[in-house]
Design goal:
9-stranded mixed sheet, globular
Length: about 450
């Protein structure tokens, strides 16, 4: 199922924000579980030495509120080492090789902008560090179909596809993994998980905060590139995929890619782009910016299982709540029994929620107390994973998988290209943004996108 265990970890961009917030806590927890083998070489441009790197690690863990086991941290500190240098300088890679010693089956993590990928992979190859190593790259993987294809070409000059791990931390979340388990470990779902019983699926990734000082970055990407092309389409793929033939990484990834291959491209007439009031006043944002902070679309998956079923997605910043959920709505009963004269029973819904908490809820109908034979909604709900909060962090899970050579939860080249194919028609040809108030559920125009047969579902709908 996996390749051999890596004997070293190289982290480019170790002095950056991602490393401080995510990577140091992840490697600490890997050390707790005994999964780190060999040196951890941090690479950055900032002046410093090994002791400075250890201090950065300690500060990161403190800021994360982690109760540090001194013995574990000392073990981690013993293998942490720092290489300072220019990514364009061959000597930098020579120093990395020296710190690794005889270890060459390494994992190299690029927490750097995509524009530096070529320089880093060429430098690694020049020092012979690519031969048996795996390469982990962060999103965004390109800005469109053409740039993603070019980026793949750069990487594949030195790393074959089977040793490239495109990380999307969304797939490392406990709730997303539980969705797969829930779908394929409960036979009661399979007979109804198709166009005959499912009326539609609505996926929401909402945040109640704005760009929070990241205006310059966000204005260059927008909601479509930031979360739709990756996070949201990956979630759609998990919901719609066929049962894999095995639990092997390739089988799981094959089924996710098949869904993306069958998904229809977005059309300008079927999307709404919004921008919250005040966004253009954010530092780093252009005063006439047309970048979307809200995006909604309707698409379909042209497969035997899902043909004709609408897949409705929306995401936005500055919305009413922070919610990540998928709502599967089933067909209504063929006749309206046990309903009052002025009402009709609502449909059954199955809700997979990862924020604000990992929860699965099934909405059913039951008798309303009293003398009348009318129904009311009842929710069967359970925390889906680790109610005590002891789930594995997404970066810990994914870094650990990369060290073991398990690519199950990483994006593959063909899947990335299919995702860009889906969003490509509306990257540049699209309606202008429309305004909405912070704290709302987005622009009113999004209601018109759904027509009369649907409405946006907001918790606790």
């Amino acid at each position: 199922m996996t390749e051999h265990l890596a004997d070293g970890l190289i982290l480019f961009g170790i002095t950056g924000d991602l490393a401080h917030k995510r990577l140091f806590p992840a490697i600490y927890h890997l050390a707790v579980d005994g999964e780190l083998v060999g040196p951890v070489v941090g690479v950055g441009r900032t002046e410093g030495d090994d002791e400075d790197l250890r201090e950065r690690a300690a500060a990161s863990l403190e800021d994360a509120g982690i109760a540090v086991d001194r013995e574990v941290f000392d073990r981690l500190a013993d293998v942490l080492c720092y290489v300072q240098g220019d990514y364009r300088d061959p000597e930098t890679y020579g120093m990395i090789a020296k710190r690794l010693g005889e270890r060459h089956s390494t994992v190299t993590y690029l927490a750097v902008p995509p524009g530096l990928f070529e320089e880093v992979v060429e430098g690694m190859a020049g020092a012979g560090l690519h031969r048996h190593g795996r390469l982990v790259v962060e999103k965004p993987f390109g800005r469109d179909f053409k740039s993603a294809r070019e980026l793949n070409g750069v990487i594949h000059r030195f790393y074959p596809e089977e040793r490239v791990y495109r990380i999307d931390h969304f797939l490392g979340k406990e709730a997303l993994q539980n969705l797969m388990v829930y779908r394929f470990s409960n036979t009661v779902l399979e007979p109804i998980w198709n166009r005959h019983y499912v009326r539609g699926v609505q996926v929401t990734l909402a945040e109640d905060f704005g760009v929070e000082g990241r205006g310059s970055f966000y204005d260059s990407v927008g909601a479509l590139r930031d979360v739709v092309q990756n996070h949201m389409l990956e979630l759609v793929a998990l919901l719609a995929m066929e049962p894999p033939v095995s639990g092997r990484p390739r089988a799981l990834r094959d089924e996710r890619v098949k869904v993306l291959s069958a998904a229809e491209p977005f059309e300008p007439k079927s999307v709404v782009r919004g921008q919250y009031a005040g966004y253009r006043a954010e530092p780093g944002v252009a005063p006439d910016s047309d970048t979307e902070t809200y995006f909604a679309a309707i698409t379909q998956i042209d497969s035997w299982r899902w043909a004709g079923v609408p897949w409705i997605i929306r995401t936005g910043k500055g919305l009413a709540e922070t919610v990540t959920e998928a709502v599967v709505e089933f067909n209504r009963p063929p006749r309206m029994l046990f309903a009052g004269a002025d009402m009709s029973p609502g449909p059954n819904r199955l809700v997979f929620q990862s924020k604000p908490e990992d929860r699965i809820t099934l909405s059913m109908r039951a008798k309303q107390p009293g003398p009348e034979m009318v129904s009311r909604r009842v929710d069967l709900s359970t925390l889906s994973s680790h109610p005590s909060g002891h789930g594995t962090d997404a970066y810990q899970r994914l870094l650990g998988d990369a060290l073991r050579g398990d690519a199950s939860l990483f994006a593959r080249e063909d899947g990335v290209m299919e995702s860009w194919r889906i969003v490509e028609p509306v990257l540049d040809t699209h309606p202008p943004v429309v305004g909405y108030e912070p704290g709302s559920w987005g622009p009113a125009e999004a209601d018109g996108l759904l027509g009369s047969d649907w409405k946006w579902l907001t918790p606790p709908d």
